[in-house]
Design a protein that fits this description.
Number of strands: 22
Strand order of the largest sheet: 3-2-12-11-8-9
Helix content: 25-40%
Distance between the termini: 64 Å
Number of helices: 15
Length: 439
């Protein structure tokens, strides 16, 4: 009998220990590969009472490079020495300050985590270490009924993460119900989430069942949860805690049996400190946290993703038409629209190319091939300067083409690029195009 041998995939997390200096009792926290939060809120992993400390002040997570420290939009900041930091990587024992409280960081022995030897988890694809680590977290969480909070930029595939978790769970035969919180009018948020009786309010001509009840036996996915109005958040928290909902206009609570997955592109930790998102709801949702890395942080996945998308389009053999020049341009690109942008570019290139012609995915993104002399000229300059100039040149050409084709319609440019409208407006202003029409 043949034996299948899988190579061992290991990721070394360089962790540490955080101690609270000057506390009345010894407080410490081990930092590993799972994110931990310190702050004033009682639900934080390390609760620190002191002057100038925010509810959720800072987050720590062990990475292969060291412990990543991230300030969570605190009012009084996080300081390492004389520097106020928004994000830093700690590689040696040191002290830092949150508000007016000094904390000590001590380096500990690195922890090696075995990564799954797979390149797909449901509809998700990736062979890079960040994606394999994400697959590891999702595999562990999928077999439970814990609530999952998926965070990531627009276009990274947060809905695909939710689908993958549902498909890998024991609830896979049940319904998968999606609620787009970003599309709910604030005045209708409660009725949309919990249902309503006929005549409960103006326009309620019929009874509507709560999506929590529709998801019984399955999973409910609350997409863009960060857009939910503050006044509805306590009612959602109560529903999650009690596992029951009451429709608007009704006096009866109905129990539900559904796994809850939420997703957002917003920084919810900063929203908690800003008072626009409840900390107790955050911790209720974040029993399992899944952060989807942007494509620019895993560009080694780009060739495999192209193959994966071509296969989904039934054109697996088209990979042979992707030449080296195209791949080089794609690997230098920053992918502001993430995987969604790559999927769109592959689809456009496939639709516009003739059989046997090179598949110009870079051209579909507006990326021009660099001439040999141009490459030689930039190679003698500082890397970041050359990259910034090349990116600026691309951005101007890319958005000029879109601006001319859409007459400055922000909504249409947003649809074509997969970027948020605020980002589209920023790029248009940055490169000197006329003020776009409001859309």
């Amino acid at each position: 009998m043949a034996t299948t041998v899988f190579s061992t995939q290991l990721l070394e997390f360089k962790g540490g220990c955080i101690r609270c200096e000057g506390a009345t009792k010894e407080q410490s926290l081990i930092v590993g590969p799972e994110p931990v939060v310190i702050g004033r809120d009682s639900a934080c992993h390390l609760v620190v009472e002191g002057t100038g400390i925010s509810s959720m002040h800072a987050e720590f997570v062990a990475t292969s490079r060291g412990v990543r420290l991230r300030d969570l939009g605190s009012k009084n900041g996080t300081w390492v020495g004389d520097l106020r930091v928004t994000e830093a990587t700690l590689t040696a024992s040191t002290s830092f300050w949150i508000g007016r409280t000094e904390m000590l960081f001590e380096v500990r022995k690195a922890e090696k985590i075995e990564l799954p030897d797979i390149e797909q988890f449901g509809p998700l694809y990736g062979t890079s270490a960040p994606m394999r680590d994400l697959f590891r977290r999702l595999q562990k969480g999928a077999s439970t009924d814990l609530t999952v909070l998926v965070q990531g930029e627009t276009g990274t595939g947060k809905e695909l993460v939710a689908q993958a978790v549902h498909s890998a769970s024991e609830r896979r035969e049940g319904p998968f119900v999606i609620v787009d919180c970003g599309a709910i009018a604030p005045t209708l948020a409660e009725a949309t989430l919990f249902g309503h009786e006929a005549g409960a309010f103006t326009g309620a001509t019929s009874t509507r069942m709560s999506p929590f009840l529709e998801a019984n036996g399955g999973t409910i996915f609350l997409d863009e949860l960060g857009e939910l109005p503050l006044e509805v958040q306590p009612k959602l928290l109560r529903a999650l805690a009690e596992r029951r909902v009451k429709a608007v206009g009704s006096n009866t609570y109905k129990p539900f049996d559904a796994r809850v997955i939420a997703a957002t592109r917003r920084d919810l930790e900063s929203a908690v400190n800003a008072g626009t998102f409840r900390s107790d709801l955050y911790f209720r949702l974040a029993q399992v946290r899944a952060s989807v890395p942007p494509l620019r942080q895993r560009v080694e996945d780009v060739p495999g993703l192209i193959k994966h998308v071509l296969e989904q389009h039934g054109a697996k053999g088209a990979w042979r038409r992707v030449n080296r020049s195209t791949l080089e341009r794609l690997l230098r690109y920053d992918w502001p629209g993430n995987v969604r942008e790559l999927r769109n570019a592959v689809a456009v290139a496939l639709a516009l190319s003739e059989e046997g012609e090179p598949l110009d995915i870079a051209g579909a993104l507006g990326l021009k091939a660099l001439k040999g002399k141009a490459i030689e000229a930039t190679a003698v300059r500082a890397y970041h300067d050359a990259k910034r100039d090349a990116l600026t040149h691309f951005e101007r050409a890319y958005f000029k083409q879109l601006h001319d084709a859409t007459n400055g319609n922000v909504a249409e440019i947003s649809r074509r690029t997969g970027l948020q409208r605020t980002h589209v407006r920023k790029y248009l202003r940055m490169h000197g195009f006329r003020a776009p029409r409001q859309a």
